[in-house]
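Hi everyone,

Forwarding the result from last night's run.
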Amino acid sequence: MNVLHAYKVYRPDVDGGVPEVIAKLTGADATGDRAEILVARDRGLPRRYVLGGTPVRAVGSFGQISSMPIAPGFPFALRQAASRFDVLALHHPFPLNDLGVAFGIPDDVAVVVHWHADIVGRGAVMPLVAPLIRRTLDRADRIIVAHQSIFDGSSFLQPYVSKCVTIPFGVDTSEWTNIDDALQRRIADLKRDHPRLIVAMGRLVPYKGFSVLLQALQQIDGEVVIIGEGAERDNLQRLAEQLGVADRLRLPGFLPRDEVKAYFHAARLFTLPSVTVAEAFGLVQIEAMAVGLPIVNTALPTAVPTIARDGLEGLTVPVNDAPRLAAAINRLLDDPVLAGALGDAGRRRVAAEYEQSVFRANVRQVYENAVESRRSRAPGGETRT
């Protein structure tokens, strides 16, 4: 099969949970199929490149509005490229994907929607966007969600229950646990220089709740590193200065994988302080659990607190509650026995329930079923080579 993955942004411009999922599904060892990626630039001229062995086309963008690239050429690029593929894997939310589908996708191309989350906090534009989203879901052959709560919380998905398939994300545990000598030295240096290190990772956008984490840091004897890029970087730096915690905060931006691993292995815990349902799953929790880190997350009505469960693999605190967040983090920093027990439980859970090979195989099966279903409605369709 030839598969085109389409989303709004990708590495190295922007990292995050959805780009990580796309990387897992398109790597050279992923499925044996031919995959390409179509995205928009965070800002800048169009470019083509190869990342992780996968060709990437990034359409030019004038910048972003509300985390969406201003890339008027994207829908046309999607329509033009779709005819070369057996499967169009659309990663939602991204309204320009929906506009591309509205422009017309060949009848013999299977469409699989990866529904990562609903669009949140865009009430003014929803009357314009909603019909496009429904058109995409009408055209979709299958819809993949990572957790039942994503389906339950989406009014868009309710009419399409027969198309929906639940496939939890997975991680390659060996990627996170294999440490060479050079990386071990880097980990030792970080532990020596930052003995009470707290790590967080994600796009620097409001729903991630990093501002709440900085408020909590006022009451924590420790240091925080937030790995990731995003529009909130300058605001977070200013807030840290206002709160008097700038000397205990690091915002290193996008980091190579080995450096991310070094921080994860050097940290005492991982925190996911997200504040809205835009955080539908929290894949990064699984990566941290694979390392053996205890988790502090928030009680969102999404999959987040069901991945690292309160008292089992981590501690769950109320949403947008800096004092409770600080108390949970301090508890793990001050009780290494509890932290170790939660971390060990998290490692075991990842090995038992979130194996990357299972995730990939299940997604590939959905793609195959979508292609077969599409062929049955379009006689004479052939797999593209």
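The first strand starts at residue 2 and ends at 6.

Cheers,
N.
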